[in-house]
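On clarity, I found the account of how folds are encoded harder to follow than it need be. For illustration, here is how one protein appears when written out as sequence plus structure tokens.
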Amino acid sequence: MTDAELATLVHEQAPDAVIFAGTDGVIRLWNHAATALFGHTREEAVGQGLDIIIPERFRESHWRGFERALADGETKYRGRALPTRSERKDGTTIYVELTFSIVKDASGAVIGALAHARDITERFLRERAERQAAPRPGA
């Protein structure tokens, strides 16, 4: 596969948002699906910190986890999808399902974090409403 084919697959054809941030938390890769999901164009997102998609109230815990994962060279969520809140460019809260991996160079040095995201807002809200409407044990 050529570099051009790989770029087309990741940037334009991948069905999920693909985001790569360096160890400094600055976005280096932002694909077309990320633009569709979060509303920021590639030009707006690349070079910005991940805070552009993290609701303010979650930023402190996000950065603690980000730093810990980079230091460990591994994320505790590897191989698992994590549902979480995120924020679109217009400030709208959405729910996304994220998968993460810590990216290392050929020598094994950590160079950043890669995430794939998909919108689960509709499903999340429907399931929450179903849970809230369900009879509670002992009620």
